[in-house]
Specification:
Layout lengths: L2 H22 L10 E8 L7 E3 H15 L2 E2 L2 E10 L2 E15 L5 E17 L2 E15 L2
Parallel strand pairs: 1-7
Antiparallel strand pairs: 1-2, 3-5, 4-5, 5-6, 6-7
Length: 141
Amino acid sequence: MDLQEMSDRLEITDVLIRYTRAIDTFDWDRLDSVFVPDARIDYTESGGIAGAYPEVKPWLAEVLPAFFRKLMHTLGQVEIVVRGDDADVTAYFHNPMTMDDGAGGEKVVEIGGLYHHTMVRTPDGWRSRELREEVVWKRNI
């Protein structure tokens, strides 16, 4: 592995972390440093929508805080295959979230799965041009 590939892998990992931190902290504008403007995002396996980033970003801002009080992603194994200025990235995730239990308290729901990104090198660094969320398991949902 040469220095460029090591640098690419670190930068791509940082994109993944920015994504999960943006979602977990409801910092929707931070997602602009994760996705290219015309990125495609598919959350249909978890009950969400699929569409272009400009459509999905406001949907996230409306839906996630309405259902979930707190979110906390954990990323696990990450596979990165760099091909010049493109990369295929798969990252394991575990996402526990708290929500209203319907009786005045809260409950924890969880999703485990894989984030499949197609990333591209841009003048501003690596960005995701496509994200597909694959749900492997759910708990309490």
